[in-house]
Structures are given as C-alpha cells and as structure tokens.
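Revision sheet: structure tokens.
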Amino acid sequence: MDKTICVGPGQCWFVDRPVRFMSVLGSCVSIVLWHPKQHCGGMCHYMYTGNIASEKSDYSLAENATAYLTRQVARRGWPMSEYYAGVFGAIKPESVCQRPLYSQLVDDNISYAKGFIRQAGVKLKYHHLGEAIPYLKVSFDLASGRAKINLGQ
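Predicted:
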C-alpha cells in the first residue's frame, strides 16, 4: 500500500481500493466503515451533531457525514451488516474537560457515534472514544482492517 489519505475536520472519503486513512482527533469523531472481503471503505471526521450546529451543511456535521458514508455503502450494493466499524476521538483533555460547552460537545459526539453504529447494524471492531488525553491519532488500513492508535501524551 502506498497511498495515505489524511482526513481532516469536516471531510469524508470512501474508496474502492486499499489505502490507509489517517486522522488526528480532539473533540471531533472519526467513523470508519470497512468491508473485509471487498477491501473498500470510508472515513468521516465530524465536529458537531445537530444539537450544536444545526445550520451546518457540510461534513463537519455528524448527520451529513454519516449520511455520506451510508450513501456510499448503498452505491456499492453490499449490505451495511457486512461492514465493520471503528469509532475514534471525542477526547476529553483535562485542560478543557471542565468547560460545560466542551463537555456537552464531546458527549453529544460520542452519543451520536454510538447511535449511528447501533442503527446502521455494522459490527464494531474498534472503539476509542472519550479518553482523557490531549489528542488521538488514528490510521486505518483498508487492506487489512487494522487500526493503529497513537494516544497523544
């Protein structure tokens, strides 16, 4: 594999070839969907749920980002139940976790991610949400379905 796609805040990707997705997360959440037989999948990196930023129309809004992933899965014709998922982020660093708005943002992001995975019917393979660290760096390999997690210290 020679291609790494850096997925930044408000971005979504879905590809039909083995690549590596990479993202650095704070309060944001990345959701990865991976099909183990087809070696295709996608990653979104959302910043807010509709509870915080209901007027957002790009992929920084969780509802738009996951709708994109859902549409891409449907386009490929394999059932969502054949996909595996990873959810990462919504970090709670000690320096800001006492702020009510930050805590609410993180809690909403976590709740949305868990609800999406449950509702979509995908198998949860990786789960790194809400840890008390400064940041989290994740890379996900579509060829193998492996995630590499770097917990910021």
